[in-house]
Amino acid sequence: MQYNLLLKGGAVVDGTGAKARRADVRVQGGIIAEIGVGLEAGARERVIDASGCYVTPGFIETHNHFDAPMWWTPTLDPMPGYGVTTSINGNCGFSAAPVSDDPEVRLEMVKIFSFFEDIPIKPFVDVLPWDWRSWSEYRRSLESRLKFSVNVAAYVGHIAIRLAVMGMDAWERVARPDEIAQMCRLLDDALTAGALGLSSNLLDHDSQNRPVPSQIADNAEFGALLDVVARHPGATFQVIVDTFMRMTAEASVERLGQLCAPRGIRMQWVGVPTYEFQEKMRGPIFAQHERFKAEGRDFWTGFHHIPATNSISFLSSLIFAQSNIYVWHEVISAPTEDAKLALLADPSWRERARASWEQCWPQSPLSRPGDLTLSESESGFGPVGITLGEFAARRGGLHPSDALAEWVIDNGVRSALALKPWPKSRKICLELFRDPRAIGNISDAGAHGQMLCGIGDHVNFLTDYVRDTHDLTIEEGIHNLTGKQADFFGLRDRGEIAVGKRADIVVFDLNAVERRPVEKIFDVPDGEGGRTWRYSRAPAPMLLTLVNGVPTFDKGRFTGLFPGQVLSPTPPSLAMAAE
Fold first, then answer.
1. Which residues contact 48 (CB under 8 A, 6 or more apart)?
2. Distance separating alpha carbons of residues 58 and 478, to the nearest angstrom
3. Helix/strand/coil percent split, the chain, to 5
4. Phi and psi, residue 22, nearest 5°
5. What is the pLDDT of residues 69-119, one digit of tens each?
6. What's the half-sphere exposure (Cβ side, CA atoms, 13 Å) at 47?
7. What pTM does this model have?
8. Omega before 571 within 30 of 0, i.e. cis
9. What domains can you pick out in the chain, each with its CATH number?
C-alpha cells in the first residue's frame, strides 16, 4: 500500500548538520517528493500537523545483534516508538551466515554467538529455518521469509566464515592457503550479495578462556580477506578490540591498520575508550586515532555514551567469564536450576570460586562488592536493595563469593544483581560526537536482553546532550544519529531529508520524549513451548515514524506494518552518478 503524506509546519533538521528550517515535507510512494513552505495537500494526501516538532531522518542503530532475535521478534520492539528506521547487525565477528554443512559445527557457531551476546540457544536453533549455507542464501531467506518493522543491514562475521571453512579447527590453528581461499570465496559471495563488509573480533575469550577463532587468524588470512573487501567499493571492515580486559587494543589496531591502509579500506574499530577507568590507556589510543586522521586514513572509531551493563542474571550471563571469574561461570553454564544450586552449596566449588573471584579484572564491577546491588529476589526471602558488600558484612564478613552463593541459594537462581554503571567521560564523548571520524550509538541492542535494553539510548543522547545541557545543537545531535551514520555505512539513499531520498523520517517533540525505564516483556521463546523475558521500554514516544514512507509508529502505538527492507551499501561512484 502506498502512503501519501504531507508533514506540515515542522522544524526540518535534514541530517547534514545544516541549520533547522521551518518547512513542509511531502512523501509519495516511499520517497521524499517535495520540501517547501506552504505546500498544499493533494486530494489523497494525509496531512500530519508537525508544528512544535522536529522533522528529521530516521535514526540508525549502528551496532545491534538482532541476527537471531529478529526471527522471533520482527517488530524489533521498541524501535518504532523510538524513531529507529535502520538496524545494523552482524557485528563483532558474529553473524548467522555462512554456516557449515556439519550440524555440529553449525551448533558451535550458535553457541559462540549465544554465549557472547546472551541470546538464547534454543530459539536460535529451533526458530531460524537454516535454509542457507552462504551469506547470499541467508539474505534470500530473510527477504522471502521475514518482514521487518525497520530496515536491516548486516556485516558478515569473520568467526562464522572461519568455522564454516575450518570446522572445530578454527579454534586451534592458523588457516592453510586452500582454507584461506575458501574463506575469500565466502566473503566475496557475501559482499556481492550486499553485506556491509567484514566484521572481526580481537577482544573476546570464551567460558574456557579460549580466544575466539578470529583471534587465531594470522596476517596472511587477514590480508587475503581484506583484499576481497578492497575489491568491493563501499564495503567496510569492522573490528572490535580490547580496551576492557587484556588491554590489547592499541597493538590490534596498529596491526590491522597496517593491513588496511595500503588497500584503501574503510575501517571501523571499537573503539577509543570512554569510561573513566580507561583514562590511563586512553591517551595512547586517542593519539593513535589522531595520527590516523592526520595521515588521511579512512579509519573510524566507534563508541557509546551510555554504560553498557546494568543487570546480572544467573540463568544466562557472560559477565562472570568476561570478568575472569571462570568458576562462577560454571553456575551460569549448569543445565538446570537444581544443578546450579548444587554447585553453589558444594564446599569444594566454594573454595575454587573464592580463588577464581580473586582473579577478577580490577576494572570489573564484580571486583567492588559495594557496587553490586542485590536487586531482584525470586523467593522474596531477601534482602534486596543492599549491596553485596553490605550483605557479606551482615553474614560475619564472608568472602564476596561465598556471600553471593548464600544469597542466591536463599533467593533462587532467577534472582538478579544490579551493577553500578562505570562512569563515562562526558568530555571524551563530546569530543567524539564532534569528531568527523567517530561513529556513536553503539547500543548493542538485540544482545544481552536480560541485562539491558540499548534501544532508546539515542533518545537519552538527544535529551541529555542536546535538550537539557545544550552541549550540542539539535543539528549536531541529529547529524550524529542519521546523516553521518548513513554516509559511513554507504546507505546513501537515506539519512537525509532531501528530495529523492527514501522516506525514513521521524517527527517528534523534543520536550515530550524520554528514554523510558526498562520493563520486562515476555516474548522470547524458551524452546520448551513457553516464553521467557527480555528488557524493553515503553515508547519515547515519537509523533510519527516512517520507514520507506510507511508509518510504523503512529497515534501513540506500533502500527503493525512491516515495511523494512534488507539494505546494501552503495559504492561512492554509483551514488555520485545517481545524484
1. 5, 6, 7, 8, 507, 543, 544
2. 9
3. 35, 20, 40
4. -75, 125
5. 999 999 999 999 999 999 999 999 999 999 999 999 999 999 999 888 889
6. 11
7. 0.93
8. no
9. 1-309+422-579 (3.20.20.140), 311-419 (no CATH)
